[in-house]
Design a protein that fits this description.
The protein is mainly beta. It is built from two helices and 24 strands. The protein starts with a strand and ends in a 7-residue tail after the last strand.
Length: about 220
């Protein structure tokens, strides 16, 4: 089967892992890696175009795109800037994952090795489910959210848009986490978390408000 052309946006640690998944799954041909840390365009030893993202003439050459950026806010910003349909963003899923056939997975998600997504869980678009994460049955994980390595999201949890959950945190059943909230690493979330708040500890408690975002 002919490989589809893929452009990766961002060239940091997430991109490094994304490239590995592309290599393991053998479905896509990476034709460009774009990141504004580069000032000039060039081709690497494999013939892949490397260069800045802003105003790149490469953006019209691909079948698919993948935003390999760890910041939830920046992923949302790039997604809006590109203006491509959600279907243009494939999911990059490590072969060493367990995903229920009854789970619902959107587009542009990055699901790393050792992750488990259980029955009737829902993953939205442009999310990151990192290594060793567990998403419980009937849990909902909305767009542009992220679970760091070792996170446990139990059954019937609702994680709203843009939430960032730190490494090895646990969210107990039926808890709702508000938009753009941040859960500190190692925290145990036992009750609702309000939007735009940072909570830490076990049980997790309010620490401060999230810094005001500069874009929608």
């Amino acid at each position: 089967m002919k490989k589809q052309k893929l452009i990766i946006i961002g060239d940091g640690s997430v991109a490094k892992m994304a490239k590995e998944i592309v290599s393991l799954t053998n479905q896509y041909e990476i034709i460009a890696v774009l990141d504004d840390k580069y000032e000039v365009d060039y081709q690497d030893e494999n013939g892949v175009h490397i260069g800045p993202f802003t105003n790149s003439d490469q953006l019209s050459n691909a079948d698919n795109y993948f935003i390999a950026i760890g910041s939830n806010e920046k992923r949302q910003e790039i997604f809006a800037t590109l203006g491509k349909p959600a279907e243009k963003y494939p999911n990059l899923i490590h072969p060493n994952t367990i995903i229920s056939p009854n789970a619902m997975i959107g587009y542009g998600n990055f699901i790393m090795a050792g992750a488990t997504i259980n029955v009737d869980a829902t993953i939205g678009n442009q999310c990151i489910i990192n290594s060793g994460c567990i998403v419980g049955h009937d849990a909902i994980f909305e767009d542009f959210s992220q679970a760091s390595p070792g996170t446990v999201i139990t059954g019937y949890v609702i994680v709203h848009e843009g939430v960032n959950i730190g490494a090895n945190a646990t969210v107990l059943p039926c808890v709702e986490i508000g938009e753009w909230a941040v859960i500190g690493a190692g925290s145990t979330v036992t009750r609702e978390v309000m939007l735009h708040t940072v909570v830490v500890g076990s049980p997790a408690r309010f620490l401060r408000l999230v810094k005001q975002r500069k874009h929608a």
